[in-house]
Amino acid sequence: MSCGYYPVILWQALEPIFLTGVHINLICLRPSCWADQLQRDANLAHLSGLCYLPPPQLQPKLETLGLTLVAEGRTHFTRWYVADRIPGSPGGEAVTPSAAGAAPDSAATGQALPTARSSGGGAAAATSEWAAAGAVRNGSSRTVAQAAPPQPGRYVFMRGVSWSSAGSDRTKLWSDLVRCWPTPFQEQFTRPAGALVAHSGVAEMATDLWQDLEAFIARAPGDVHFAGHSLGGSLSLLLTVMSHLRLGMPGQRMTATTFGSPPVLSLRRGEDGDAILEALGMAPSSVRNYVLDNDPVPRALLSVDPTFEALKAWMPVKSLLELRERLLGPGAVLSTSRFLYHTVGPVYLIRWLGQEGGGHSVLPLSGDQIQEHLKLDVEALRAQPMRLAQALMDHHHGSYAQELRAAAASLARRSQQQQQAAYP
Question: Alpha-carbon torsion 12, 17, 23, 26, what sign?
Fold first, then answer.
């Protein structure tokens, strides 16, 4: 297990000791390892953003980052690609399809690609590319977080909603997104049957996408890492669960990392997101969810959804929710304590605390802390146009890569300062 996961495990062990709302400075949780993990996840956010590139630009860009493009494709709701990073090939060296464990030559709407060409710079070129990607501005200085290229394995990236992209069926996409009522998910593979429920429209998307990706997942040369922004992250989570249930892949061999993604999964009986992974037999470290401070999208369909909060304040709706809770029990869909879905796995809230507060921070949340810290002050946003504009910008896929890099650099800088103070 990577040392980057130690802070997560330690946090989960210590969390019951602390009162809800207590802020833990991540610098005390093995800051150097945690900074590396944040930098790796910043790079995942950057790589997921490459789904928005024109197709001819994707393969050359990946080669400069030391990854081999295995396949790519598009549907009416997303664009996806599969890439490998092979042990012993940290740079842009050519990697043969057999060494990469490439899947068959085609999949329903995707196409397997030939051997990647050398980027010309080899390992040094790829490392410098990641180092450049890790550079962030800090006032007048430029801080470079430690280069942390992706770990060896197979990577599956999916794009968020893009209404103007070629091949998008806007009518069908909108219809899928508004079909948000929970439906049994992978019913025949869960025990008990129907234990999981998912967003009806997104579950249908994931099932369609599975036809394209199953072969690439099943024949992966190593661990499989799913990642995506917005809808792409929601699909990443569902595909991770499907790989576990359908292919019997152990949770230790898969990760799902989401950036600003709306929740789309829950247990039918209503327990929170930690219980979902426990019921599936998957480790908490197999899923990581990043939420920017004012991004409204990952709060959608949760009990802290601003729309749901506003509806609960209206007495007729509140009475209806209370009635449903009395009839169906605590945790029922559309009750006072639950809107539709739960977050799955740990949530990391990315915030700017100002220079006096130490700059960027990443706060790990679990349980009731999620409900408390993800609430949006809608009235404050309305009263401050600049803050509202920032909230809209927060959801952009580039914002997640940028803010995570800044948080990693800030944490690495504080760690270095602590070490210098301890060992002058």
Answer: negative
